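Hi C.,

You asked whether I'd gotten around to modeling the 444-residue construct. I have! Everything is below, sequence then structure, no commentary in between.
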Amino acid sequence: FFFIHYSLVDRAKTGRNMSEKGTSFVNASETGEIPSFNGNETAKATDFANYFCSYAQLYHQKQMLADHNRMAAYHAAIMGNSSVFKDKVVMDVGTGSGILAVWAAQAGARRVYAIEYTDMAKHARSVMQANGVADIVTVIQGAVEDIVLPAEDDFEAEEDDMTDGSAKGTRVVDIMISEWMGYFLLRESMLDSIIRARDKFLKRRTGLMMPSHTTMYFAPVQDEEERKHSSNDYNASMSDWSEFADTTKTVYGVDMSVLERSFEREQREYYSLSSRWSELEPAAVLSEPKIVKVLDMTTCTLEESKGIFAGDPYSTFDFDVKGDEVVGPISGFAGWFTADFKSRTDEAGIGAPKLPSPAFLSTGPNDGYTHWGQQTFYLLSSIPLLKGETTRLEGSIEMSRSKDNARLYNCRIRHKSSRRKNAEEKEGTVLMKGALVENVYQIP
């Protein structure tokens, strides 16, 4: 059941097999960017087939629209701040079926630009008509990196953005909204498109981003049933290979054992070294979650959007897990994110409108189901917890884009464990100290 559920949720977001090793169709530009920015025609076609096309299906749109925590957060952010939206120019990046654009119009925006790359744009236009906002919402089909906004005589760009001629500047957007977040926040790399759209269209001093801030969290978890499930599936796959190789040699006279090492590597990467979509119970979290990345959507850079790197301010962790307080063992680590919809906090935005009703979205175990769930990175061997003792986990996390697919990520987790008596100081006498463990996981 777990793997069926995982597969369905994964396909609903982007499609399962986004990156096939060995293919000549690399889902990245020559400079490693997402293809919608500067990819050649082959890269763009691959990106569309692997990523965008899934968003053109109403079935997938419905799954996201049925995520009530997601919907409630965005509805509260928009409709709860109608005074901020009144008479403003709004851009919805990746509008899909258009519900955020409808809400923006209903909240009082004078113009909404709903940007959609796929043919879902046709459905979005129908939704605007059906909800009586087609005169306010303009649906534009295309990559946000490439689009040109229609000329509007009554729209004023910021003074420092006016062009040399009579044409007006491009920074005419007062509020930019988007649901761009992927698994563990960064997967899909749609944030690149948001940053480029922000830097091209959003007013620097008074513009608002929704969400305004995002935060990534990381914690040790207990999920032993699923960890063992993955391990058993790996072992079963290898047993099946052994039988296959014997049969092929006995019946057909061909020795396939030369391929066993490569097959084992594939299976280990899939079953043991790929993160899994999880819907964890609150009690599964064994220590206070740690922040591993914070993004201010008004100021974050393209470089910051590309992952978590060694030496980053939040890239290390140090957890204490008390065997008397939680049920073990430690099965792995899990990651999730939160998104804030609040006023600007950067110095340049001191004069920007203030949101009277901030909103909040969490994808953590304590806050109920979301289609994002949590990404769980299972250990190859679990770590036992003992009564009267505290297990310490120290380490670091790095997250970087896959070379073959700029929308997928690999996650390097290094950790070492030690145990001490509960009464012992953190740097006191150690009863056990394990070796450094390093694993690189795919976030598929």
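If it helps when you're writing up: The first strand starts at residue 89 and ends at 93.

Thanks,
B.
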